[in-house]
Every structure is written in C-alpha cells, then in structure tokens.
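Hi Y.,

Following your request, here is the sequence exactly as I used it, all 288 residues.
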Amino acid sequence: MIEPGDIPTTPRPLSLTNDNEATTIQVPTSQAIATASPTPAPAATTALPFVNIDDLLAIQLAGDPQVSPQNTAAASSSGPLIAFVVQRCNPEKNTTSSAIWLVHSSGGKTDPAWQVTSGEQHDFAPRWSPDGRGLAFLSDRSGSVQIYLLPLNGGEARQVSHLRNGVTEYNWKPDGTAILAQSPWKPADDRDESDSSNIAYVYTRLDEQWDGMGYKQNRHQQLWLIPLEGEATRITSEPVDIVQSCWSPDGSEIAFCANRRSEPDLSVSMALWVLTLATGQMRRLTPE
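Below is the corresponding structure, written out as tokens. Let me know if you'd prefer a different format.
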C-alpha cells in the first residue's frame, strides 16, 4: 500500500516482445529521497489593516465634472476650468454635505483645486453659463433645492429660483439669459389653499412615488423658464412627468422625454417630444 507521504514514481514501459517475461519497476531509495531539494516556503506577505468606520467616514467622493466653455472668461493660459462636486461625511452631525470645487484642466497632481462654495449643506450639479462668467449650481441651503448663480469675478452666490417644490434638473438657455428647470407641480399649487396631502396618502396609480423623494402628492415634473432677473414661468402643465429636457441650439425649441399615454403608469416606455416656445405646440419624434 502506498502511503500519502510517499513520492510518486514514473512506471517504466512494459516490454511487448514476450508476455510471460517478468518485468520490474524502480523504487526510489531513501538516499534519493534525502537528497531531493525541498520546496521553498512561500514568502510572507504583510497583512493590510482592515477598513474601519473612521476610514469610511473620511472618504471624500468627487464627481460630476463640468468643463468651462472654450474661449470664454473661465478659460485662461492654463486651459479651461473644471468644476466638480466633492461630497463628504460629517460624523459629528451624522449628516453629509457637498461643495463645488474648481481646478485647472491643464494642471496635475501638484496643481491644487480650490473650493468655491461653503459646502455646509449640499451644493451640487454645477453648470457653466454659456459665456463662462458664472457658474450655476443646485443647493438646499434655503430648505429646498434651488438654483444659485456664482459669479467668477467675485462675490457671493445668489439664489436665482424660488420654486415652491424645488428644482430637480436644469440647464442654461444657449444665449445665457434664462435657465430651463424641472420642478414638481399640480393645479392646486396655483390656488391659495391648504395642502392636506401629508395627512393621508391615497394611492390610485402605480407610479405614485419617486425614487429618493417618496410620495408624489399628485404632482408631476413640469418645465419652468427662469430668467436671471424676474419671476419664473411654468411652460407645461401635463398630467405626466416631463424629464431629461434640453434646448435647441437657437433656443427656440425644447426637447424632452415623456410618457403621454392615457395610462402612463402601465408602461415604462417614453417618447421624445419637441416643444416650440413661440406656439406652445408639441410634436412627437419617436413612437411610445
């Protein structure tokens, strides 16, 4: 019987000339076993420390980079500027916060970035003005998410939007005179009456909640035109959500996605639509 510790051998081929002829195999001797070179032990590796809670809380996340327009005030001999968001944890307050930072695009690790917003609350979604002289961003510093504009030539950021239900998305008009925003709305918001939707929730459709926002309170995302000076104007009043909007290059039309079927909650498909501002007419470009 071969024990587990024995060294395996390679059998010699049998002779095929005579089936009755005896054959032998070679068994290694104890001297051969003693002279065999031992297998080297694997090199010891240095164990890395485990990640703890303090390490996770110290992580800062950078994201949403936005490059300033070429040949504008934000571009310099060091190249265009890049605006980005840095999110961090605040263990003492058990909260998170984020701030807007800037860095030169031609710089490297030795060219430090600098913070341009306070970051005491959540400042995020930076977007350059078409002329590169201002940087818009979203912030909840006033209690709801609104649009703020930071001039690059100095000064504090000022609040541009004052929408009742905050802003979810936005983008600049190509000429830089206004901002297109998306905000939840329902007809009752235009009437001076108390809102009892927080007392009891009545679900009548499958899409009564937004991810990350909760109960919709019968509101839908609508398009708003916000001038840099003056009051905002709602330009849609659809019973469905209008999302992912953007401008045409000449600023005369707005493209967006929406499911305008009679029962939109029964299908997740959306179509591409175009709104002409001069006439208020909508036309569908893709099938639903």
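DSSP finds two helices and 18 strands in the chain.

Thanks again,
Q.
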